[in-house]
Amino acid sequence: MANTSTRTLRLLSLLQNHRYWPGTELAERLGVSVRTLRRDIDRLRELGYPVEAQRGVDGGYELAAGAALPPLVIDDEEAVALAVGLQAAAQGAVEGIAESSVRVLAKVVQVMPARLRRRVEALRAMTVPAGWDGSARAGVEPGVLTAVALACRDSEHLQFSYTAADGRHTDRHVEPHRLVCLGRRWYLVAYDLTRHDWRSFRVDRLTAPHGTGSRFRPRDLPAADAAEFVRAGLDNLPRPYRVEVLVDAPATTVRERIGRWSTVEEVDAEHCRVRMTADSLDWPTMALGVLGADFRVLDPPELLEQIHNWGALFNRARA
């Protein structure tokens, strides 16, 4: 059974088809009992949704004819979380739900209050898909994300304080371009007006971003898109681990599964060479695990040791 919030959204989606639903059929679609369905209907009514009921053996439910749906009752942080989650799903995070996620996101945004709708629409429009690689790590304030997204959308100069990897704090004045979610982190791609060059900034290191009110004419980004710009910058960073593996699978198959985060070279029709750079060996271990193919570790030796340790741990798993 889905959790209450998810089930309530699903129930609302079914009722929005503007058709009459027999109670037993609607309960079956939701995978709940008729009694639970009645509680969910009451919950929608408490939120202001005009759900009408017909009593009797063939009783059922429908939205009141011609009734306008009230605004979706969520706060700012919930609106951002909803947009980020559905957008990730729409990019293929889970097989088979991408199209449904797009439809749900469109419906939800439509019934949001205007203030939240503006923020969520900006976040959707100004985020460049960089492939699914899990949820973005915690630590990014929803307000920071929406403030940056709005500045990107409106071509408005943005100022913020930035903390570099070595702990140094600097004040930045930029022309924001796009947000990118990659490697479980959010990045802002922007033109730095102080350094007179393009930069990518980790959003979790931004403090107090705010628009200045002045607009700018967008510049041409020196890359195919913002995601490619961020990837190129990350590839040039010093990484403690450079992984090289021979995989017993066609290069096309391996690229489909982990090509967004690695370099895949064809050896022959049935084998390929995979290279990755990483801050830790956890991600390469997981990536190789999802391939479902035999492989040989060429470098580094520590990777093979970690894989054996993880294998021993999994073998000790109990029901």
TrEMBL record:
Keywords per UniProt: DNA-binding, Transcription, Transcription regulation
The keyword DNA-binding is annotated on this UniProt entry: yes
Gene3D superfamilies noted in UniProt: Winged helix-like DNA-binding domain superfamily/Winged helix DNA-binding domain (1.10.10.10)
Start and end residues of each HTH deoR-type domain: 4-59
Annotated InterPro entries: CBASS_pafABC_assoc_protein, DeoR_HTH, HTH_11, PafC-like, Tscrpt_reg_HTH_DeoR_CS, WCX_dom, WH-like_DNA-bd_sf, WH_DNA-bd_sf
Matches recorded under Pfam families: HTH_11, WCX, WYL
GO molecular function: DNA binding; DNA-binding transcription factor activity
Name under which the protein is recorded: DeoR family transcriptional regulator
Organism: Planotetraspora silvatica
